[in-house]
Design goal:
The protein is an all-beta fold. Helix content is about 0%, strand content about 30%. The protein is built from no helices and 18 strands. The strands form 6 sheets. It has a 5-stranded mixed β-sheet, with no helix packed on it. Strands 1-2-5-4 form a 4-stranded antiparallel β-sheet, with no helix packed on it. Strands 3-6-7 form a 3-stranded antiparallel β-sheet, with no helix packed on it. It is rod-shaped, with a radius of gyration of 38 Å. The model has no long low-confidence stretch (mean pLDDT about 90).
């Protein structure tokens, strides 16, 4: 306090002070990163009451401002992401003023990793062609796929219809459905994948795989190439086994009258990559 002064009625006069402190500001948001939320909201909290703040005061990257509200020391801004990638917001120096006319200092930079693109599920281990499989063991994967929903159908199955899909499962959980109760015929599996922020593959773009369940599968017929014909002086064989759908074989060799319908004396299973070279 100043010493007593006649201008203050004989009492000590108060010392006049001047506010020269620049308002500080912090940007924050309840929305965690990464996110697929749009629009996004953030809060600007000043160290004191300010005026003059407008939406265009914010420096935005990969976003546009769509609304500003608030007063005093606290404001809320809504921004609309323009695409996948980093979305950031910052207040530059001088964006607002306190009651003494001091301009605010620059804020921190607030950023999100924005992802609104749905992933596409992939399937491994799905039966193909004709299959006697009665229990599935299908692995769901795909770039950025962390979870999925699936449904199984007989005959014509509309995978674009969301009805009939099961609860969300982690990709660590295989599709292990028992299909022994399904009849012979076409079986279809439909899968939609999701990423870590919740973007789901559209039902209309579901990953689809089909096969024919057959409890009686027609066995393939082996073909032979390189077998001697007529009278032959060959003392060694070099016979190639093939045929549509043939991946392995067993054979037996006999002289004179040989009953091939008798399973006795057939050798162990061989890959078609192995020639009969007796």
């Amino acid at each position: 306090m100043r010493p007593p002064d006649s201008s203050c009625g004989g009492a000590p006069c108060p010392i006049e002070t001047q506010d020269a402190a620049a308002p500080a500001v912090t940007l924050s948001s309840a929305v965690a990163s990464p996110t697929n939320r749009s629009p996004l909201s953030l809060t600007a909290t000043f160290s004191e009451r300010v005026t003059g703040l407008v939406a265009s005061s914010f420096s935005l990257v990969n976003a546009s401002a769509v609304g500003l509200s608030g007063a005093g020391a606290r404001y809320a801004l809504t921004v609309l992401p323009l695409g996948d990638g980093t979305v950031s917001a910052r207040l530059l120096e001088g964006a607002a003023y306190d009651l003494a006319g001091n301009s605010s200092i620059a804020s921190n930079t607030l950023s999100w990793s924005f992802d609104a693109t749905a992933p596409v599920a992939s399937l491994a281990g799905v039966p193909s062609g004709q299959s006697q499989t009665t229990r599935l063991d299908v692995v769901v994967g795909g770039l950025d796929v962390s979870a999925y929903k699936d449904k199984l159908g007989e005959g014509i199955t509309d995978c674009s219809d969301g009805a009939g899909y099961g609860a969300e499962q982690s990709v660590a959980t295989r599709i292990a459905t028992d299909i022994s109760g399904l009849g012979d015929g076409t079986v279809t599996i439909c899968v939609v994948g999701a990423d870590a922020v919740g973007n789901y593959q559209a039902f209309s773009a579901a990953t689809v795989a089909s096969w024919t369940k057959s409890t009686v599968v027609t066995p393939p017929t082996a073909t032979l190439a390189g077998v001697p014909t007529g009278y032959s002086q060959s003392i060694g064989l070099d016979v190639v086994v093939g045929g549509v759908g043939v991946s392995a074989y067993r054979f037996k060799l006999g002289g004179g009258s040989t009953d091939c319908s008798n399973g006795a004396d057939y050798g162990s299973e061989q890959s078609v990559a192995t020639h009969i070279a007796s």
